[in-house]
């Protein structure tokens, strides 16, 4: 299916319903806000109904939205969205190979800072180190966020850590669970992975043109839904909490948290983020094995450097810096 383009008019209607909260909005009021006829408003409300929105219509009062749908369309994500720029432009597809691939194309074509590509299903989801990422229909958040920071490329790993903190905070807020971060950017609950982050760059030697932050979150799979090869190491928010989680609400929370932390990072540097990241880190102070392409490094995880590099204290007293590895506890 081609990407859903949210009309400007429907976007304005959704914003008006968001601001109105529990109040009813009359057809005339909606027509004024959207700058169209009442008939056009009614047609758009019918379109929203088809997407799964449930309206309550009361004579002489008007309409209010009482339920949003469970797809992650731009309308659904836009309803109640409080961020300023992240998620304000959404490219939605029901089924894609990988949202990263689309985000790369859109970034090349000039997509604005904060554009999000999201799909309800990925057929070739990609993970770190050329692995695949299982992304079944409707049960997870599969999205890629395009940011355009005015930074040199070597600072990109810090943005991955900024993202990990934002996602942890959002999961905590929406589910009440206590996720932890396994360096560099796996998010675990009770020792099992629920979220992976894949950061890719479009840059020249001096400047980042765009950073594409791919986020995959297992949300509403039941534990039995995971394929055998990952069943023992993966979990979902539903499996961990026993409750179904609204993907759109979680995305909204991620956008707000990420935007705030991203601006903190741009204005005040990495230090405040580093402190937060370390407060959520799973392995600090513990004995770990870092499996790198050059072999295993064994020792105590001390923390991260200002570049987001992991420091490991070996038994012989030497502190090793690890740039890329799989961590085993
Ligand atoms: C990891 O290996 O832990 C990172 C996984 C990242 C998966 C996400 S899902 C959305 C985006 N599209 C992809 O193909 N990959 C990322």
TrEMBL record:
One of its GO terms (molecular function) is biotin--[biotin carboxyl-carrier protein] ligase activity. Belongs to the biotin--protein ligase family. It comes from Mesobacillus campisalis. PANTHER family: BIOTIN PROTEIN LIGASE, BIOTIN--PROTEIN LIGASE. Transmembrane segments: none annotated. PROSITE patterns: BPL_LPL_CATALYTIC (PS51733). It catalyses: biotin + L-lysyl-[protein] + ATP = N(6)-biotinyl-L-lysyl-[protein] + AMP + diphosphate + H(+). The keyword Protein transport does not apply. Acts both as a biotin--[acetyl-CoA-carboxylase] ligase and a repressor. HAMAP family: Bifunct_BirA (MF_00978). GO terms for cellular component: cytoplasm. One of its GO terms (biological process) is protein lipoylation. Residues 71-266 form the BPL/LPL catalytic domain. InterPro entries: aa-tRNA-synth_II/BPL/LPL, Bifunct_BirA, Biotin_CoA_COase_ligase, BPL_C, BPL_LPL_catalytic, HTH_11, WH-like_DNA-bd_sf, WH_DNA-bd_sf. Biotin binds at residues 122, 126-128, 193. This is Bifunctional ligase/repressor BirA. Keywords: ATP-binding, Biotin, DNA-binding, Ligase, Nucleotide-binding, Repressor, Transcription, Transcription regulation. Residues 27-46 bind DNA. Its EC number is 6.3.4.15.
């Amino acid at each position: 299916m081609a990407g859903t383009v949210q009309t400007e008019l429907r976007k304005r209607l959704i914003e008006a319903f968001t601001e109105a909260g529990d109040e009813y909005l009359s057809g005339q009021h909606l027509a004024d806000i959207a700058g169209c006829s009442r008939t056009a408003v009614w047609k758009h409300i019918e379109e929203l109904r088809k997407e799964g929105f449930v309206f309550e219509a009361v004579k002489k009062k008007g309409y209010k939205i009482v339920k949003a749908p469970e797809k992650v369309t731009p309308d659904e994500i836009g309803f109640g969205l409080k961020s300023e720029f992240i998620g304000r432009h959404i490219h939605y597809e029901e089924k894609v190979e990988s949202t990263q691939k689309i985000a790369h194309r859109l970034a090349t074509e000039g997509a604005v800072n904060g554009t999000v590509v999201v799909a309800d299903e990925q057929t070739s989801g990609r993970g770190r180190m050329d692995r695949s990422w299982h992304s079944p229909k409707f049960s997870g958040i599969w999205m890629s966020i395009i940011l355009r920071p005015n930074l040199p490329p070597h600072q990109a790993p810090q943005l991955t850590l900024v993202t990990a903190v934002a996602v942890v905070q959002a999961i905590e807020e929406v589910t009440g669970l206590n996720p932890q971060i396994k360096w560099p950017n796996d998010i675990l609950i009770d020792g099992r992975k629920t979220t992976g982050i894949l950061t890719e760059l479009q840059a020249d030697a001096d400047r980042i043109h765009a950073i594409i932050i791919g986020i995959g979150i297992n949300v509403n799979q039941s534990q039995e839904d995971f394929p055998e090869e990952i069943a023992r190491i993966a979990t979902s928010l539903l499996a961990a909490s026993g409750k179904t989680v609204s993907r759109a609400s979680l995305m909204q929370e991620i956008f707000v948290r990420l935007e705030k932390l991203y601006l903190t990072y741009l204005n005040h540097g990495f230090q405040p983020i580093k402190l937060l990241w370390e407060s959520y880190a799973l392995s600090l102070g513990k004995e770990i094995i870092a499996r790198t392409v050059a072999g295993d490094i064994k020792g105590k995880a001390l923390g991260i450097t200002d570049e987001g590099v992991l420091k490991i204290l070996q038994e012989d007293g030497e502190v090793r810096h690890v740039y890329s590895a799989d961590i085993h506890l």
